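Researcher: Go.
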Amino acid sequence: MRNANSVSRWGILYVVSIILMVSILILPDFVFAQTTGKIIGRVMDADRNEYLPGANVFLEGTSYGAATDREGEFTIFRVAPGTYTLKVTYIGYEEYAGEITVPSEGGVVGHDVALKVSYLQADDIVVLGLREGQAKALNQQKTASNLKNVVAQEQMQRFPDLNTAEVLQRIPAVSITRDQGEGRYVLIRGTEARLNAVSINGERIASPENEERYVGLDVISTNQVASIEVTKSLTPDMDADAIGGSVNMITKSAFDFDRRKLFLSAGAGYGELRGEPLYQGDLSYSDRFGGRDEWGFTINGNFYDSNRGSDNNEMEWGSVDDTSGTEIPWALENLELRDYVVERFRFGFNGNLEYRPNDNNRYFINGMYNQRDDEERRQLLGIEPDGDGFVSKTENLGGTIVRELKDRLERQVIYNVTAGGKNDFENWGMDYTVAYSYAKEDKPDEIDPVFEMNENADLQFTLGDPDIPQYRITNLESGYEMNAANFVLDEYSYEHNLATHTNIMGALNLKIPYSFAGFPAELKFGGKYYQISKKRDNEVWEYGWEGDDDVLMSQLSAGETKGEHLGGDYKQFGPLVDSQKSRDFFWANKDGLLEGELDYEATYGERYDVDESITGLYAMTTHSVSDWLFLLGLRYEMERYDFNAYELIYNEDGDYDSHSPISGSGDENHILPNLQIRYSLTPRTNLRLAFTSTLARPNYYDHVPYFIVFREDEEIVAGNPSLEATTAYNYDVFGEHYFQGLGILSGGFFYKSLDKIIYKQQIEQSGGSYDGYEKTQPINGKAGWLYGIEINWNQQFTFLPGFWNGFGMYANYTWTKSEAEYADGRISTLPGQAANVANLALVYEKYGFLGRISMNYHGNFIEEVGEDDANNIIYDDHIQWDFSASQQVLTGLRIYAEVININNAPLRYYIGETNRPITREFYSWWGHFGLKYEL
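Model: Structure:
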């Protein structure tokens, strides 16, 4: 398709060439390997016996060293015989120095280290555990070979964030989109969600979304992870499908600690808008067993029951002609008032079993299950002006008033099982993994009645404030639309939709430490294979009433009404449809007096399935030269896909004509170079440079060859099997300084050069059977670029005296700018790129008290590219204030309280310009309180 065989051969050849070249260079090193030794050990907290990951361990006066892994273990290979001073540095801890001797015959030398805390005074010991989590995260960032942010579980507890998306919004250069007030999708460094990756323990997870590749992280609770890494400069051993960055959630392990661990949390809450209770609970337990504690297991469970909702109004704006034929630009074409009652029940559990017979061998199997049930009952009052009835921009004759109930359960499920091992031999090591991940989004038996008012309405609009357009019916008595008896059943919509996604993966990595020009280095190479299946199966019916007598809304109402809407912006919302009565009526009359017709567009037009295989091969080498670390490598990815969809034809009268299956296949290959440099200016100051190459594949539904023709309107809606992945070259210049008293000051510049951006385009079809039709289709645009500046300051003021050293500050700011060239020559910004993203939190941690008030902000960005800039859909800026606090009352026991969205921040979209809002949604505030216990 794109000379794939040639590209495949060259890609494999490049990777193999790197392995052979480095192997030749290190061959002499193997010949003399028996004259060197290996130093192993573990670094721990001297008081709490907690393992310390990310510690910098090195032999003074040499380039030999290592960083500890998540269990605090380190290995320094190929050390010449002799006596050395082994040093260990760790932010927030006193430096360690000790003598160590490698005997003349080589061999393995063990040396464990216990470090003393330096960032706390004696009366601060009650907050030691939480600050220790921050220290672990900072040290892992500091010693990483690439640019990343790490959030430990202890840090997650400081903010009132219950799902992993909300945790990520606090990280520099990360913003999120929200659904019903909860964080959902992650955007990194001004890139849309499609351009970012999500994995668990380094392996990609399946997505329950019905069209997309990316994953909504509101499904996964913070309790299920030990830490989260956001990688901003990928290394060759990582999946390349992440232009903005990669989110990796690391699950808990019994080997993270040297003892049994128990964590319990139970709480309740309140949502102010609906006045309903909220409930939550978490459990985590890990232990080790066996004669030498070589076995370990961990179990986690959580649930969250949220009875909240939102008040919403939505508008449609467009150009219309008035009754005299004069164009009215951007008239109000539709106004909807929406009342959401939403119960979200989220629960999850995961387990991990590990076996470590000795320091050189480890094996594991783990699994995770997450489910989010979103039960929504949305009442709607719709004001629909007659398209031919505009007298002026504010007057319309013959409009229609409708009332609807959307009554559905959306169930999202993600689960995965992973098994693997790691083996370290004398002069090399390997690790291997197999994984199965499955996700689904199921909407069973959605039943939505629509009622139409029995009289047409002459409408008068007040548009002084476009956020709250007001209407008045001038030809009927006041309050006519507030009487349920004046609405007649128009139709029922019935849906059962299911989307599934399966990932099967296998990976193997090999590591060979060696010396080059007298300096330590490591060769790493390997591969990964994914077999992926994505499928959506929709069934949608429209039912009309065939009985002799009209069915009135009052017959399916329990008499419940709603008064003020949107905090009084609208004085009355009116009668509500009763969900249970509606369902009982539908099932009693379905396929009887309710006569159904299949909605072919929503059924066959949206059905598809994709089979995809991705193979990744890589080779990389790292070199330590004094205070420098160099990483050089190459990754090659091959993709093959087969897909099935439908061609659907509607005739000149707008009626269904025919449908037929349509298939296709293709392949794509990418060669991805990588170079990263870290320079330790001082023991606590790093400078980083990075050049990386990454990609982002199209969303599944955009890529399949569906083709829908509307002959009456001369329109075509189609997928695009010729879409190619968006690719990017990424450049980073970054500096970071770590405060010994616990904190970081960092900043830098990043630049991304993108090619083949993806967006939807409307063009006029030229030639063929549909010449002159307007065709809407996702396509590859031309080039784009994005650059930005990222600044982060996070510090505990431990240098202050007495009471004041409990204060701290958490602040970060990211500025970005972008430009994209679309296929029609238009220049605009990239979707997902907000010019400004910021976090600010004032912290106090002392005397067992933890408290913070925090602000999160992101600027507006393009959510969806329109046919021109005036029709771009814009996600408006968002600023939200939260508060959280806890107090230790007994050893291991804390009480906590949280208040979220104190300022009632809305969700808001507009089209083209801010004075054309299309969605406004408010949630008010909600909060939680309860107990946390840790042993």
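Model: The first helix runs from residue 4 to 31.
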